[in-house]
Amino acid sequence: MTGSPWPHRSVTRSYYRGAAGALLVYDITSRETYNSLAAWLTDARTLASPNIVVILCGNKKDLDPEREVTFLEASRFAQENELMFLETSALTGENVEEAFLKCARTILNKIDSGELDPERMGSGIQYGDASLRQLRQPRSAQAVAPQPCGC
């Protein structure tokens, strides 16, 4: 999702429903996209899973000389809103994969800690195949699982 408002914003709101994670992206060369972040964050937290993981991504890091939003300013916004933050470049690929991996790792950690329950409706997590439900149990459940008898 990008910080700039879309003409049919109500359509974009449906993308948040039940989401477990989101990348909130703004353009570091555009004050306008940065100024829209608060509204997009409110939508995400209102319409998605209550435990949504949000990564704030300042894109176009390759255009640093044209920057309108400082790293410090965006970092402060992230800290005040309890978001993870990094700067990326879609052009060079810098930190793009890392943003997705950081989001996925954080979601997995929340599942492992019990903060997110994939079995709960609206958690934002769904198993693709019913057989996978038995493979992905919280670590605490795996540790106490009875061992088959060797008799």
Automatic annotation (TrEMBL):
Q: Does the keyword Ribosomal protein apply?
A: no
Which GO terms of the molecular function aspect are on file? GTP binding; GTPase activity
The alphabetical list of record keywords is:
GTP-binding, Nucleotide-binding
InterPro entries in UniProt: P-loop_NTPase, Rab_GTPases_membrane_traffic, Small_GTPase
Does the record's keyword annotation contain GTP-binding?
Answer: yes
Question: Where, by residue number, does the polypeptide cross the bilayer?
Answer: none
Report the PROSITE patterns cross-referenced here: RAB, RAS
Q: What is this protein called?
A: Ras-related protein Rab-4B
| Species name | Marmota monax (Woodchuck)
